[in-house]
Design a protein that fits this description.
Number of strands: 6
Number of domains: 2
Strand order of the largest sheet: 1-2-3
Helix content: 40-55%
Strand content: 15-25%
Oligomer: single chain
Structural class: alpha+beta
Order of helices and strands: EEEEEHHEHHH
Radius of gyration: 19 Å
Shape: globular
């Protein structure tokens, strides 16, 4: 493993942990040259469905693009890296368990919105405003009302 900071080929594993669901291994590493620390994740490589874009073209699923989108929506929000990683894994799990060989990009966008709505409402609104390409303020206001209105029928019990 090369250091992401100085590209030195030698790193030392400081800590290894298995994720709660047992699907990945998290390793804390230290570079032997610059001594900076970083985290790596190991997970089995599984074939995910091919993404069918709006223009009809097809592309391999790219975990990096998914991660970038979530990080962009969650920029400067109080959400841990572990929570983001868990959301990415839940999205991948849903795609794999669908059994589909192809998945429309819209489906991935909806899965991202569902995860963002659970972990941070501001990030959800940010993502929705770009993803849904709001035409006017009323559409934007509707999404805000959607997340601001508490779910009906949920009573808190002691």
């Amino acid at each position: 493993m090369h250091c992401p900071y100085c590209a030195h080929p030698g790193t030392q594993v400081l800590d290894t942990r298995i994720s709660e669901d047992g699907d990945s291994i998290r390793r804390r590493r230290r570079c032997e040259s610059c001594e900076r620390r970083f985290t790596t994740y190991e997970r089995p490589e599984i074939a995910l469905p091919v993404v069918v874009k709006k223009n009809g073209s097809r592309a391999d699923f790219d975990r990096g693009k998914l991660s970038f989108s979530l990080h962009l929506a969650l920029r400067k929000r109080p959400v841990s890296a572990e929570a983001i990683e868990a959301a990415i894994e839940r999205i991948e799990d849903k795609l794999m368990s669908s059994g589909d060989k192809e998945v429309p990009s819209d489906r991935i966008g909806e899965l991202v919105m569902r995860e963002l709505k659970k972990i941070d409402k501001i990030a959800y609104i940010r993502f929705a405003s770009v993803y849904r390409s709001f035409e006017d303020v009323d559409e934007f206001a509707e999404v805000i009302r959607e997340v601001a209105t508490p779910s009906r029928g949920r009573a808190t019990r002691k």
